[in-house]
Amino acid sequence: MKTYRIAVLAGDGIGPEITAQARRALDRAGERFGFALRYEEALLGGCAIDAAGLPLPPETVDCCKNADATLLGAVGGPQWDGLPGARRPEAGLLGIRSALGLFSNLRPAMIFPPLQTASPLKAEVTGGALDLLIVRELTGGIYFGARGRCEVDGQPAAFDTEQYSVPEIERIARVAFSLAEKRRGRVCSVDKANVLESSRLWRETVARIAREFPGVALEHLYVDNCAMQLVRDPKQFDVIVTSNLFGDILSDEAAMISGSIGMLPSASLGAGKAGLYEPVHGSAPDLAGRDAANPLAAILSAAMMLRYSLDEPEAAAAVERAVRQALEQARTADIAGGGLPVCGCAEMGARVCALI
Ligand code: IPM
Ligand code: MG
What are the start-end ranges of the H helices in the chain? Predict the structure, then answer.
């Protein structure tokens, strides 16, 4: 039987609870569709700082490099907030994305029909067909540019640098256009080209790459306008492609439109097949250890893994279908409603498994 090797970086807070449910769903999908999964756990983030003194131990990078795909929970928590930037849990997350060359981050935002009322937007704004995909550049820009402390006019100051090279923009643009070809054929490139030079290079490069994809329509929006359009009329979007920082911000906004950030998965991909899959939400330390987290974003991330890294599209579709059906049976607290019973993280995972 085909056996896939999966690196599991459960991380901090609710990370271990939600990745446990994602693993159950993967195992169940394997049973059903005839493949097996072998998991290897490694440390990332705060738990790695506590156990090994650094947020990304080299063994963790090796573990992921040897795997067919990586499942990640979440990192961070208040106990590590006082550490200097390079030793914080988040540095481990940026480090693993960079070490694995995962330059494109796919963050879909859609409304599951049973959750229509969970969206803070009116039903006539989101109604029916909200299904957009944010393609966020993940290993460049201000997250990885030169930064430091300095002095300005004798006063302490600090700086971060937004820098993009043409090849970095070209490759993320190609990812976005290729995905749009398989969707509704529209790309919206988001920048701040009225102010930033890096955005002007971004815009002209994306426009040039667009000519390789004659079947895809390209438009450009400034990031402030895009933030506004996302709540005014989110259904106008198909694929949004943008920089690391803008993508971080807009993907949280898009996630909330769908009702709960606890629902949204992500895939981080590089040149090869082996991606990293993680929910968009964070480690939610206040929920940790209480069986109260929503495991569906992690389970949907596992579905993305089945589709993009493991070439098991039928299994992916079965997991996604099971999630939709589970939402009609019970709800975790963050998406409570519809007159349905409220259940914990493990029960939600069990319900999804039973439906796969
Ligand atoms: C995300 C998170 C991370 C990011 C943080 C935790 C470093 O917000 O994945 O969106 O900014 O990339
Ligand atoms: Mg974020």
Answer: 15-33, 46-52, 58-65, 89-99, 123-126, 166-181, 197-210, 223-232, 244-257, 296-308, 313-326, 345-355
pLDDT in tens, 292-307: 999 999 999 999 999 9
Tokens read off for 291: 């069986």
Chain centroid to CA 83: 25
pLDDT, tens only, 238-291: 999 999 999 999 998 998 888 788 899 999 999 999 999 999 999 999 999 999
Ligand 1, pocket-test mutation among 248, 253, 277, most atoms within 8 A of CB: 248
Q: Determine the Cα–Cα distance for residues 22 and 47; give it in Å rounded to an integer.
A: 20
Q: How many residues appear in the chain?
A: 356
What whole-number distance in Å separates Cα of residue 268 and Cα of residue 4?
Answer: 18
Q: Is 191 considered catalytic here?
A: no
**Catalytic site residue from 68, 191, 238, 248:** 248
Domain annotation for the chain: domains and CATH numbers: 1-107+261-356 (3.40.718.10), 120-257 (3.40.718.10)
Of 12, 75, 93, the one to substitute when testing ligand 1's pocket (max ligand atoms within 8 A of C-beta) is 93
pTM for this predicted structure: 0.94
How wide is the angle at C-alpha 66 spanned by C-alphas 63 and 68, nearest 5°?
110
What values do phi and psi take at 229, rounded to 5? -60, -30
Cβ partners under 8 Å of residue 153, min gap 6? none
The closest residue, in CA terms, to atom 12 on ligand 1 is 248
